[in-house]
Amino acid sequence: MMTAAIVAILITMILALVRAFLGPTEYDRMLAANSFGTKTVLLIIVGGHALGWFGYVDIALMYAMINFIGTLAIMRFFEAQDRGRDET
C-alpha cells in the first residue's frame, strides 16, 4: 500500500513539473512549483514512515516552512514586477 502511495505521489510530482515548465503564465508556474513542494513534503512523510526513519517529520516540517517562505518571496517579486509594468 505504501508503494502505491509513493508511486501516486511521484506521478503527481511529475505532472506538477510539466505544468511548471509549460505553464502559460508565471502564476501557473509558481502554483505548480508550490504544489511540487507540497508533494515533496508528503513524499518525505510517507517515505520516512515506510522506511522507519525517526526524524522524517522534522525534516518534512522544515522543508514545508522553506517552501512557504519561498512562495511568499516569489509572490512579492511578481507583485513588484507587476507594479513596475503599471508605472510605465
Can you describe what's shown?
This protein has 88 residues and is mostly helical. The chain contains three helices and no strands. α1 packs antiparallel against α2 (26-51) and α2 runs antiparallel to α3 (56-87).
Helix and strand arrangement:
Elements: H1 2-22, H2 26-51, H3 56-87
Helix pairs in contact: 1-2, 2-3
Query: How much beta, percentage-wise?
Result: under 5%
Q: What helical percentage do the residues reach? A: over 70%
**Number of continuous helical runs:** 3
Query: Uncertain runs with pLDDT below 50, 5 residues or more?
Result: none
C-alpha geometry: elongated
Give helix and strand order, one letter per element, not per position.
Answer: HHH
What summary fits the major beta sheet? Answer: none
Integer average pLDDT: 90
Write down how many β-strands occur, each being a DSSP E stretch of 2 or more residues: 0
Kindly report how far apart the N and C termini lie.
56 Å
Q: Nearest-angstrom radius of gyration? A: 16 Å
Short account of what is shown:
The protein is an all-alpha fold.
Which terms summarize this structure?
mainly alpha; 90% helix; single chain; 0% strand
